[in-house]
Amino acid sequence: SGSQAIKALKEEGITTVLVNPNIATVQTSRGLADKVYFLPVTPEYVEQVIRSEHPDGVLLAFGGQTALNCGVHLHKAGVLEKYGVRVLGTPIDSIVDTEDRKRFADRMAEIGEQVAPSAAVYSVQEALEAAEKLQYPVMARAAFALGGLGSGFAHDPDELRSLATQALAHSSQLIIDKSLAGWKEVEYEVVRDAYDNCVT
């Protein structure tokens, strides 16, 4: 999707600057982006690129969890505002609403959508207490984590203790959900443009 975003921006005559440490990806191929920085996608390095390039905007949704986390950090630190960089596409508040597991559950409740009973926790002890209330089996999911790091099912306190310890080493927040194992998951995506054209 990142390569397609770069192509779409170039078709509109927009100069593109890419930060990507992976030299073996289509995104970094010669001639795709106008300029490529082979740097880690961290707040420190991205701020250096922003300071040097003076971009008008930044797209966060095309760099996976790393870019989302980096963008949220840059926003909270005031870096984007300092350099006058707008977030294009998904707004920061929407990113935080979907990445912060408690905020997401709260937003779903506000619009009347049912979600599995859950609790946001910040320590192994809180995770164990939440699981006792929800009753095992439970699913533990780390917020703001790459590839579900530290997430999984726990059938007893020992399994949960292990999962929670791993997850909280990489994330400050963990959500404990009542397990929905055995349910069928259906994913439905809609793409809509500013003129209300939809593709489903």
UniProtKB/TrEMBL annotation:
ATP-grasp domain location: 105-193
Biological process (GO), any one: 'de novo' pyrimidine nucleobase biosynthetic process
Keyword annotations from UniProtKB, A to Z: ATP-binding, Ligase, Metal-binding, Nucleotide-binding
Catalytic reaction annotation: hydrogencarbonate + NH4(+) + 2 ATP = carbamoyl phosphate + 2 ADP + phosphate + 2 H(+)
A GO term for molecular function: dihydroorotase activity
PANTHER family found in the cross-reference section: CAD PROTEIN (PTHR11405:SF5), CARBAMOYLTRANSFERASE FAMILY MEMBER (PTHR11405)
Protein name (Swiss-Prot/TrEMBL): Pyrimidine biosynthesis
Phylogenetic classification of the source organism: Eukaryota, Metazoa, Ecdysozoa, Arthropoda, Hexapoda
